[in-house]
Amino acid sequence: MANLRINLCGLTLKNPTVLAAGILGNTGEILKRISKHAGAVTTKSISLKPRDGHETPNIVELENKSLLNAMGLPNPGAENFLQELKIAKSGAESPIIVSCVGFSVDEFVKVAEKIGNLGDAVELDLSCPNTKGTLEFSQSPEVAAEVVSKVKKIVKKPVFAKLGPNVNKISEIAVACEKAGADGITAINTMPALAIDVETGKVILTNLSGGLSGAALRPVAVRCIYDIYENVRIPVIGTGGVLSGEDAAELMMAGATAVGMGTAAINEGPNAFKRISNELDKFLHRKGYKSAAELTGLAHKR
């Protein structure tokens, strides 16, 4: 077997797979279950106050192993999530990344103050594409940098800035976050998209648009990760369409140190992390690599 362990900002992951912030990760028990197989787990994006999210229908399953989701960041709020974090920490077998979201710079800081130091790392959700008032944080280098800088002053754990693809040049945002003190980048968030029921002629999602994830997003993620890796020195958690071990290898070759998984986890649950890790191990063996870490940035060396 190849060595699947990786070092991510001082955190040891037993394999490169990471539960991405999204539909799962809303309870401590789920985080513990997934941590048995995933290298790390990310909580739902937690806001200062509880949110119900958007009304159903808020998910559209597409034919090409892809999804549209417009969940609208449903979560119990930072104060109520404290107990879930305690449950997760009581038996998690992998590092826990706490995802924080705000609708102002001040809200990001307040959420980070409440829960940011309770996990092993923090992810700042700067780029949710289907909730008004959140996408803007990842579209301005100055605003993204301000959030990172202020959170870094109060959080003693590694801080990752989660960026979206809906910008002219994602590397410019990543560079600004790095200069502001970010320890890593998570790329990418889902991409704004829309689906129409041709039988009725109506838009399917109640929110109209949603975030595209799954196989259709992977080429976009690969391009963004490649661009970010070329311009920053901090590690990248690559997310977007990782449905197999080979998909994970592709994102890592583009520059990712670890790979986030969302759609696969929704479809298969915790077993997705075990399956993809096993497939990655077989790929490494077939290609003659001794460790998963050898894949990171490989495409930049040829």
From TrEMBL:
Keywords assigned by UniProt, alphabetized: Cytoplasm, Flavoprotein, FMN, Oxidoreductase, Pyrimidine biosynthesis
One GO location term (cellular component): cytoplasm
Required co-factors: FMN
Primary location recorded for the protein, binned into one broad class: cytoplasm
Cellular localisation: Cytoplasm
A single GO BP: 'de novo' pyrimidine nucleobase biosynthetic process
InterPro entries, per the entry: Aldolase_TIM (IPR013785), DHO_dehydrogenase (IPR050074), DHOD_1B (IPR033888), Dihydroorotate_DH_1 (IPR024920), Dihydroorotate_DH_1_2 (IPR012135), Dihydroorotate_DH_cat (IPR005720), Dihydroorotate_DH_CS (IPR001295), Dihydroorotate_DH_I (IPR049622)
One Pfam match: DHO_dh
Active site: residue positions: C128
SUPFAM superfamilies to which the protein is assigned, alphabetical: FMN-linked oxidoreductases
Binding-site list for FMN: K44, S45, K162, I188, G214, G240, G241, G262, T263
NCBIfam families attached to this UniProt entry: PRK07259.1, pyrD_sub1_fam
Its job: Catalyzes the conversion of dihydroorotate to orotate.
Protein name: Dihydroorotate dehydrogenase
Species per Swiss-Prot/TrEMBL record: Candidatus Naiadarchaeum limnaeum
